[in-house]
Amino acid sequence: MTPRYSSHFLIVGAGAAGLMAGRALARAGRQVTILEARERCGGRIYPLRAEEFGYPAEGGAEFVHGAAPVTRALMREAGLSLSARGGTRWSARTGALLPDDTPLVHADRFYRALSEVSADLPIAQFLETHFAGRQYDELRRSVTRMVEGFDAADPRRASTLAIRDEWLARDEGPLGRIAQGHGALVEYLVSECRRHGAAIRLRAAVTAIDESRGRITARIRDGALIEADAAILTVPPPLLREIVLPLAVRERANAAADIGFGNVVKILLRFGTKWWEGHGGRDLADLSFLFSDAMVPTWWTQYPAEYPVLTGWLGGPQADRVSSLTEAELVEMGLASLAGIFDLPLDRLRRDLVASRAINWGNDPFARGAYSYATLQTRQAQSVLSGADGGALFFAGEALYAGPEMGTIEAALASGQERARTILTPEP
Ligand SMILES: Cc1cc2nc3c(=O)[nH]c(=O)nc-3n(C[C@H](O)[C@H](O)[C@H](O)COP(=O)(O)OP(=O)(O)OC[C@H]3O[C@@H](n4cnc5c(N)ncnc54)[C@H](O)[C@@H]3O)c2cc1C
């Protein structure tokens, strides 16, 4: 069977990648059925109910990073706007709370050494090779913190070349949020899928896919079987292990183990007031990000929006270390971190707390982590997974995006769009 002539496509997963691929195929006249395990679409885009935080707070993805051309084009199409981030960053790392305007120490030397790397190596090894001396202690700490916290990556596995590309790409566009929330982007894609005739089935966790005599059969957890001509799997890499696949496809899917996948714990705290604004006689009214060495080290506000909400972030190995904590314990850890940073009684913060959520994405059964990062083997794994083998099973999702913005919504949308395009475009 030649998949591009197939008429009925199954898409496993209604996240950004699955919805984007579904829309493109449905728009091209194909029959599309999207099977989603959760009770909602969006996957790692997870808007919380507006009543909880006073706005549709983001339990998952929050920022638009870099140039993000596919995301920005989709936003324009959907009539959504970007609200620029702005504000002042503060740091409590030196013990005192100060504006964080100190550049990376030895930045010139660091970026020069980075630009000269030709044979890839893990970033931890790069730092040990070029910056082993005591005078570089702070540089090594800062870079490691970025890799672990921002990229949610293990520095012993993360590719230096991929980090270089990603950090340079980050400067290509203003960082901001979708003013209407990422949920509005998902709603738009869902309405587009439906408008073009795609069916979306929620609570439909796929447990197995079989391929025989040119037909695909997907088994859903409740035992139902759904047949189609071809399928695109868009589940996060760790979930691929949990779906029974035909032997040849299983061998390809195993390449996903070479794609790094890191964890994030996100803690959202809504207070009665923005108590931090004039704290200790400092003008923190335009606080954007706050960096510290507390248990929950990174915090941000919704500035320029006025909501009295602080969001805490633990990424990579730090998030793995708290995997056994309950939601209540994570919230308590967040409050204790803030009490330490601002030198305030914990009880005072507890009393002012109006709503809280702590989401450990590593414990989410349909994500098993937050987002992917490139290891030394990832580009090879991506081409194994992306390559058409003549069969009718395809893969897409943020982890398969070979550009610099891996691990983002841009990566997911671009991957879904690209997979649909390769399926629909006749070979020359
Ligand atoms: C805490 C956090 C913060 C983030 N911050 C940002 C950010 O600021 N900016 C940014 O651009 N990106 C961010 N990201 C990353 C971004 O959210 C993801 O890269 C993107 O949403 C992934 O989309 P996807 O479609 O590839 O995967 P997913 O969104 O994971 O979609 C896959 C879908 O498959 C479903 N599924 C899983 N297993 C099955 C099964 N067996 N059967 C059927 N369905 C199944 C899942 O429920 C899910 O809906 C963040 C992610 C997290 C977790």
> What do the pLDDT scores average to?
93
Strand order of the largest sheet: 5-4-14-15-16-13-17
CATH topology of the domain at 3-45 and 181-258 and 376-424: FAD/NAD(P)-binding domain
Q: Which consecutive residue ranges, at least 5 long each, have pLDDT under 50?
A: none
Spatial gap, N to C terminus: 17 Å
Attached small molecules: flavin-adenine dinucleotide
What is this structure, in a nutshell?
Helix content is 33%, strand content 20%.
Give descriptors for this structure:
15 helices, 7-stranded mixed beta sheet, alpha/beta, globular, 19 strands, binds flavin-adenine dinucleotide, 5-stranded parallel beta sheet, FAD/NAD(P)-binding domain, 428 residues
How would you describe this structure to a colleague?
The chain has 428 residues and is an alpha/beta fold. Among the domains are: 3-45 and 181-258 and 376-424, FAD/NAD(P)-binding domain; 105-172, no CATH class. The protein has 15 helices and 19 strands. It has helices at residues 16-27, 50-53, 69-78, 107-115, 123-130, 137-149, 160-169, 182-195, 237-240, 247-253, 317-320, 327-342, 346-352, 378-386, 409-424; strands at 8-12, 31-35, 82-84, 88-91, 98-99, 176-178, 199-201, 206-212, 215-220, 225-228, 230-233, 260-262, 264-271, 287-291, 298-300, 309-315, 353-360, 371-373, 393-395. It has a seven-stranded mixed beta sheet with strand order 5-4-14-15-16-13-17. Helix 1 (16-27) runs parallel beside helix 8 and helix 1 runs parallel beside helix 15 (409-424). The model has no long low-confidence stretch (mean pLDDT 93). The site of flavin-adenine dinucleotide has 41 residues, from helix 1, strand 13 and helix 15.
